[in-house]
Amino acid sequence: MATIDGRPAQYGISLKQLRDLMEHRGREGVTRINELGGVQEICKKLYTSPSEGLSGSQVDLEHRRETFGSNSIPPKPPKTFLQLVWEALQDITLIILQVAAIVSLGLSFYQPPTDDVPFDDDETSHGWIEGLAILISVIVVVLVTAFNDYTKERQFRGLQGRIEGEHKFSVIRQGEVKQIAVNDIVVGDICQIKYGDLLPADGILIQSNDLKIDESSLTGESDHVKKGESFDPMVLSGTHVMEGSGKMLVTAVGVNSQAGIIFTLLGAAVDQQEAEIKKMKKGDEEAAVTGNSHMNSPAPVSNKHDAVPETGENHVAVSSASSESHKKEKSVLQAKLTKLAIQIGYAGSTIAVLTVVILIIHFCIKTFVVQQKPWKNSYVNNLVRHLIIGVTVLVVAVPEGLPLAVTLSLAYSVKKMMKDNNLVRHLDACETMGNATAICSDKTGTLTTNRMTVVQSYICEQLCKTMPKFTDIPAHVGSLIVQGISVNSAYTSRIMPPDEPSELPKQVGNKTECALLGFVLGLQKNYQTVRDDHPEETFTRVYTFNSVRKSMSTVIPRQGGGFRLFTKGASEMILNKCAFIYGHDGRLEKFTRDMQERLLRQVIEPMACDGLRTISIAYRDFVPGKAEINQVHIDNEPNWDDEANIVTNLTCLCVVGIEDPVRPEVPDAIRKCQKAGITVRMVTGDNINTARSIATKCGIIKPNEDFLILEGKEFNRRIRDSTGEVQQHLLDKVWPKLRVLARSSPTDKYTLVKGIIDSKLDEQREVVAVTGDGTNDGPALKKADVGFAMGIAGTDVAKEASDIILTDDNFSSIVKAVMWGRNVYDSIAKFLQFQLTVNVVAVVVAFIGACAVQDSPLKAVQMLWVNLIMDTLASLALATEFPTSDLLLRKPYGRTKPLISRTMMKNILGQAVYQLTVIFALLFVGDKLLNIEPGRGAEIGSGPTQHFTVIFNSFVMMTLFNEFNARKIHGQRNVFEGVFTNPIFYTIWIGTCASQILIIQYGKMAFSTKSLTLDQWLWCLFFGVGTLLWGQLVTTVPTRKIPKILSWGRGHPEEYTEAIAIGEEKFDVDSDKKPRAGQILWIRGLTRLQTQVIGGELQERLIPVPYSKSSTDQAIRVVNAFRQGLDARYGEHSNTSLAEVLRKQTSLSKRLSQTSSIEYADNIPDELTIPEIDVERLSSHSHTETAV
Predict the structure, then answer these.
(1) Considering the chain, what percentage of its residues have pLDDT values greater than 70?
(2) Which of 95, 249, 275, 611 is least surrounded by Cβ atoms within 10 Å, i.e. has the fewest?
(3) Using N-to-C axis directions, what is the helix angle for 1134-1145 and 258-285, rounded to 10°?
(4) Rounded to 10 degrees, what is the CA torsion of 313, 220, 791, 417?
(5) Alpha-carbon gap, residue 676 to 787, rounded angstroms
(6) What does the DSSP assignment read for 299-322?
(7) What is the spatial distance between Cα 1054 and Cα 567, in angstroms, rounded to a whole number?
(8) From the candidates 442, 777, 826, 927, which is the catalytic residue?
């Protein structure tokens, strides 16, 4: 018989049997396990040991992977470069240009036979160049876009890989607990599960304590499910442990786990759906021409119930059809940018159409009316040229470089933030952080080091400020304390020897428990020997720690019969339940109310005021025989479910004070936040005195300031009305002054965060960041505009709910996130300032030129060079500016500040005036000034002139020098400051200059240029440098004198979302609301702006990210929804509704339902709901888009 690693190669149980087994729940599951001989027997069949685990040898693990599969689900292949090129080609403005260029090419080779006039050789020989040049520039743009998308996708996959690689789990191998990457878990592994874990595979419980699991991701039921070996031993992957702990045997991994099976179903369903949608779309395309490659074309919304309300991620508009549900989810910056894009789009398209109309009318009147010539086919050529000029004006008007600037700026920041210990999971969190006005921080681990040590103890009426000797403690009390600490703590908490002899021992597991175990070691006792005498399997009952109990109790069998209960927890909680205490010399005394108050006053409060966390340890005996005064006589086993009567009348053993020192860098970081206009509030579960002490040390509260420090109870009393409902107006009286919230529950934290976000006290509206590490912080992290989870101490649940993970758990990394966020915002503003100047000038020049000279002084190819190539490069140059500490000296922008401030508008208009003056001066008198042939009114095909070349060159020079001016947006004088810290900027600048020289000297027909003399070059340079001097002049104009109306992108984001509705109506197949042709043009041109802007497109179109455990939730939810018979409900509409559900499923996830539109959070229109899926309740979400 074949053997593997010394055991038979044939397992006693097959993959199919295990898969079937996991289909069952509850009692049925217990019966099935018993049919197979019980858990121990299944372990034997899988050749594993419940206590020792697997041997961990590679051969064995590989064989298990081959037999039962590995714990990962293959991702969908990424889009190929060619696919991305194809998608980039779909951009409407590019399509118009391509068509125009091809027509122009065709016409240049076409010689009308009817013509009597001999053809001008020059025209026919060079007519094709312009068409070709436009095609080439289109190809360049497409390649640049595709390449960007390609690198973006690769980056994200890398980031995703990193997030997944960091997900580790406790597995027992060779009898030792090891942290193993989730993907390496195999069937037969024994996993330790505890509070806060996200389960990585399906399994059966071997042993459990008070285990409760949130299975909402699988079932949609939000109630926590109790699990236990005897009544419901099945635990499933993708579910969250909300309470308790236990050990499980892994029975199914990857594709074979319940979550995996659903994933596979989902994948198949999606492929089938996609094919069907495509068929349906073809019929619908003609009806609503609004889609754009970047947004899958809308599937017809034929049933009002098809759309699912979303708790959307950062999707902007996945498709025009589904944009109703998206409307409320833009981030602050997105909302502002979208509004701006729409304004620019309207202006641009109006001017473009006007230009074409004027040119054509002028041409017709001049040719047919004035000169009275008959129609000739060759005139088509002229009309096409006019059209090309019009399209070019449109191309220049729409800031193509904007989405690129945003994407680059974010991607660059995200990459750099990794170095600053910020792992960004949702792109727009990075930018939102720059607008943050409030931070609600946890205390433990974020503001403090989370390395706890016992520094004071009170045992038998002795208060010790140093480590007591074991011999000084009465022997029976000492051994009870050692036993109580060792047994009544999670066995996953241990103290390990340090890696370096000079370092402190490593604390593994719960830090408070580690402090107590350290106390045992300090008494020269070994906690491990006590644990070996009482293995977890022997425990009678465990009441695990949760935020309501604030204590943990363990019941073990007592030597000589009966039971002993050990309890530890927050001292005021425990002392209330104590009836006895060990007094002087270990005498047992009654614990009276007076003694309790004296203890509180003389021991606990002084400890708390030193910033110590106080923990009491107590015990109680249940004996069958004669009971002592502090024991309970029992005849049969007590009812352990009656917790109130079990954990009472305890005997207090000791009170210890645990110190968790403030991180050395925190006070400075908090000072920086306060300077930057960000209020830091501390929300903690600790005692109010401890909290006050730590808050003072951190600088959150300063002496003689007017602030509030509240306990959870008092906070609730102040903010709730007589019926117990939270009232916003009451909350508004509390939060502005509140600095510390102590003894708070997770609900309090959530209420506070929601209250601050919803508050309208301040015109600017608050943007709130929250830090959290525990499972109970999930709701607050989700609600916050930006949620920070702790990378080291954080539970999986907290990381799931967050936007940014602090890989070093350090508060000062948050300050760096603020700096980067502000930098992103500023980079985009800098780019806008630069881009809009170019746009205004180019559009006005093209328009007036067309009216006055019947030909744009800037040719189509030249404008494309300025607009597409230079903008793309400028966006790179300006988006990669490094943040400086000056960013932290200004106040946050808040939600409502206009994107283009008055200062910026002053710069834009000021520079535009200068550039236009120069260009028009050159256009009308430049030929005389420079003594050259005039280029005005030249016939078609007469070839480029030096006159127009000088205009083009001056424009580019002015633009290039204006790039320096654009580097400062707050009216600083020195525009060169820090230029050399940004190599990308100066490399690009020099590169663009060099290309411009080549274009002018050797561009000839392709760029319609004629080489210039040195003299003319110097004139162009002179005009270029003039922008810098003019810039100084513009800066001197006081901004306050400028009317407010000139700042663009004002108002509340809520209003923007209304504006965005234009052209994003739901196109009902039956409705008459067909988009107007004018809208279509620019909506399509702008889709990039709206989709790509921040991560909308990134997430939607670019990242079918590899499967990650966490995204199971959504997938499963969706499948359940449609399993529940959507088809049946919607009859013939089922296809669309399913398609909608599947498409929406990708974004059943966090972001901005809260950020930008608070009013709407509660009243999403009825037409959007599918009753089957209560998304709000399910909104546990994921950091990866499901591979759909």
Answers:
(1) 76
(2) 275
(3) 120
(4) -10
(5) 19
(6) PP--SGGGSPP----S-S-S-TTT
(7) 52
(8) 442
DSSP letter, residue 1099: I
Helix, strand, coil proportions of the chain in percent (round to 5)? Answer: 50, 15, 35
537 is written with which tokens?
């399997």
Residues contacting residue 593 through CB under 8 Å, at least 6 positions apart? none
Q: Quick count: other Cβ atoms within 10 Å of Cβ 596?
A: 17
Give CA angle at 399 (398, 403), nearest 5°.
Answer: 125
Angle at 1171 between CA 1169 and CA 1174, to 5 degrees: 85
Contact in structure between 1031 and 911 (CB atoms under 8 Å):
yes
Angle (CA) 632 212 442, round 5°: 95
Which range among 103-107, 502-506, 634-638 shows the weakest confidence by mean pLDDT? 103-107
pLDDT for residue 1166: 38
CA count, 13 A, side-chain hemisphere, 286? 1
**Residue-level pLDDT at 484:** 93
879 close to 405: Cβ distance less than 8 angstroms: yes
Task: Sort 446 into a burial class: Cβ within 10 Å, 0-12 / 13-18 / 19+.
Answer: buried
Q: Please provide the average confidence, as pLDDT, over all residues in the chain.
A: 76
Residues 6+ apart with CB under 8 A from 792: 807, 808, 809
Q: Which of 1105, 1148, 1152, 1161 minimizes the C-alpha distance to 338?
A: 1152
* Three-class secondary structure of residue 1066 per DSSP: coil
How far is it, in rounded angstroms, from Cα 628 to Cα 621?
Answer: 9
Burial of 937 (0-12, 13-18, 19+ CB in 10 A): exposed
For residue 610, pLDDT over 80 is answered with yes
Q: Are 1187 and 346 in contact (CB under 8 A)?
A: no
Q: What is the C-alpha separation between 992 and 997, in angstroms, rounded?
A: 9
In contact, 847 and 839? CB cutoff 8 Å:
no
What does the block give as tokens for 442? 């946890």
At 480, list the tokens: 């009870």
3-state class (DSSP) for residue 892: coil
CA gap 944, 1008 in Å, rounded: 5
866-890 tens-digit pLDDT: 776 667 778 778 878 888 888 888 8
Query: Which three-class secondary structure state does DSSP give residue 72?
Result: coil
Confidence of residue 565 (pLDDT cuts 50, 70, 90): very high
Nearest to 338 by CA among 1051, 858, 945, 1011: 1051
Tens-place pLDDT, residues 146-195: 887 787 677 667 766 766 667 788 899 888 888 888 888 999 999 999 88
Residue with tokens 């005036």: 913
Please report the sign of the dihedral spanned by the C-alpha atoms of residue 879, residue 881, residue 884, residue 886. Answer: negative
**Residue keyed to tokens 């809520």:** 1054
Q: What whole-number distance in Å separates Cα of residue 1051 and Cα of residue 343?
A: 14
Beta bridge partners of 662: 448
> Cβ–Cβ contacts within 10 Å for residue 815, how many?
23
Which tokens is 715 given? Answer: 């906070």
Helix (H, G, I), strand (E, B) or coil at 362: helix
Q: Identify whether 5 is a catalytic site residue.
A: no
